[in-house]
Design brief:
The protein has 12 helices and 13 strands.
């Protein structure tokens, strides 16, 4: 049985206290929320903090509110559990892609503990890294922890571990913003700028900064009665490829967001998870849809555009060439779902 190493555990009661504790404890400290990622990693000695600072009793991370300042409608505290996200009143209707992605994460037990913030800050994954200490030692470790070489791309100067968060691609596709609070104060960053394409330095967040809240754009207004057009409506979906439908990390995630003007796609974003170290927006796929009706031809063009830059590495489940092929299939399915929903709400 794998055991946790001993460590100091701190329980701040306010955000200010949490940030001060982290600054005092220095680089050997780590925040923890639900612990469903950090504790297994500590058991395998992938992460070895000497001090662990729990965010679970920090009330600022539990706030959920609706703001009507014209740009942001819903604010989600990063400490909400994934199960809590799924049952927020009216949330399932307004932000279906977020609920879909949250419900795809792992199992009910882990969703009861795992938080939104922990999911968005999830460590990157790789077959050569997500192993016990003894397993990693037997191959002389790798660049991400304790070693010098990348076993996936031995001549590469960087780590290619993959982003495996189900919610991160959705947040990038929706254009969400994150509020970060650290010793230097607070700042708001677009979700897309929170992630780096680097398996080791996969977040742009400073180590002492806490992800406090996620700000979602206002949901589209309900469509007016036909035949009047409903300008500016948007919708989004998330599709996930994994071996076991009941519980597995994504080896491919597709988040598709679309804004409609009458029957034309006014704007679109396609974001891929599980194929790079960051949620990868494929700008050409969005461009293939923009200004056009959603048809079999435009869907095929967008799927083709997403297929080309998707470059999965041989470091997660399934054959990498098959995973690449599946990008086309999953983007097609996601866009077809958006099309079907559009026709049923018109
Ligand atoms: C068997 C198993 C299957 C899983 N399957 C999936 C899956 O399919 N999809 C998926 O997305 N995830 C999966 N996970 C990972 C994990 O359960 C979830 O991503 C969960 O949401 C993580 O949240 P947490 O609160 O437990 O994170 P924690 O383990 O507490 O933290 C994770 C990381 O985020 C940091 N952190 C947490 N909160 C904050 C914050 N507010 N500010 C700054 N840093 C913070 C921590 O320091 C740590 O580095 C799985 C885990 C297991 C064990
Ligand atoms: S991609 Fe390379 S460096 Fe990164 S975890 Fe895997 S083997 Fe290690």
């Amino acid at each position: 049985m794998l055991r946790l190493p001993s460590f100091r555990y701190l329980q701040p009661r306010t955000l200010k206290e949490a940030v001060a504790m982290k600054a005092d404890a220095g680089p050997d400290a780590s925040y923890v929320a639900g612990g469903t990622d950090l504790y297994p990693n500590m058991k395998r000695r992938q992460q070895e903090p000497k001090t662990v600072i729990s965010l679970m009793a920090v009330p600022e991370l539990k706030a959920t509110e609706k703001r009507n300042d014209g740009t942001v409608e819903t604010v989600l505290g990063a400490g909400l559990t994934l199960s809590e996200l799924s049952v927020l009143p009216s949330f399932r209707r307004s932000y279906r892609a977020v609920v879909q992605a949250a419900e795809f994460v792992s199992t009910p037990l882990l969703r009861n503990m795992g938080t939104l913030g922990g999911n968005l800050c999830l460590d990157t994954r790789c077959n050569y890294y997500d192993q016990t200490y003894e397993w990693r030692k037997a191959i002389d470790f790798c660049m991400k922890k304790d070693g010098h070489i990348c076993w996936v791309a031995p001549s590469s100067p960087r780590c290619w571990a993959v982003t495996s968060s189900d919610l991160a691609p959705v947040m990038v596709a929706l254009g969400a913003e994150y509020l970060l609070v650290g010793p230097a104060g607070e700042r708001v960053v677009p979700a897309a700028r929170f992630y780096n394409n680097d398996g080791i330095n996969y977040l742009t967040k400073q180590p002492d900064e806490v992800l406090v809240e996620v700000r979602l754009p206002a949901p589209a207004p309900p469509p007016p009665p036909a035949p009047a057009p409903a300008p500016g409506e948007w919708d989004a979906v998330y599709h996930k490829l994994r071996r076991r439908g009941s519980f597995d990390f994504p080896v491919l995630g597709v988040a598709a967001w679309m804004r409609w003007e009458r029957d034309t796609v006014a704007d679109a974003r396609i974001v891929l998870g599980g194929v790079a170290s960051y949620p990868q927006e494929v700008a050409d796929a969005g461009a293939a849809l923009r200004g056009k009706p959603l048809s079999a031809d435009t869907i095929a063009a967008a799927a083709e555009a997403a297929y080309h830059p998707a470059k999965p590495m041989d470091n997660t489940d399934f054959d990498l060439s098959w995973r690449k092929q599946m990008t086309r299939v999953y983007v097609t399915r996601a866009l077809e779902e958006l099309g079907r929903r559009r026709s049923t709400t018109r």
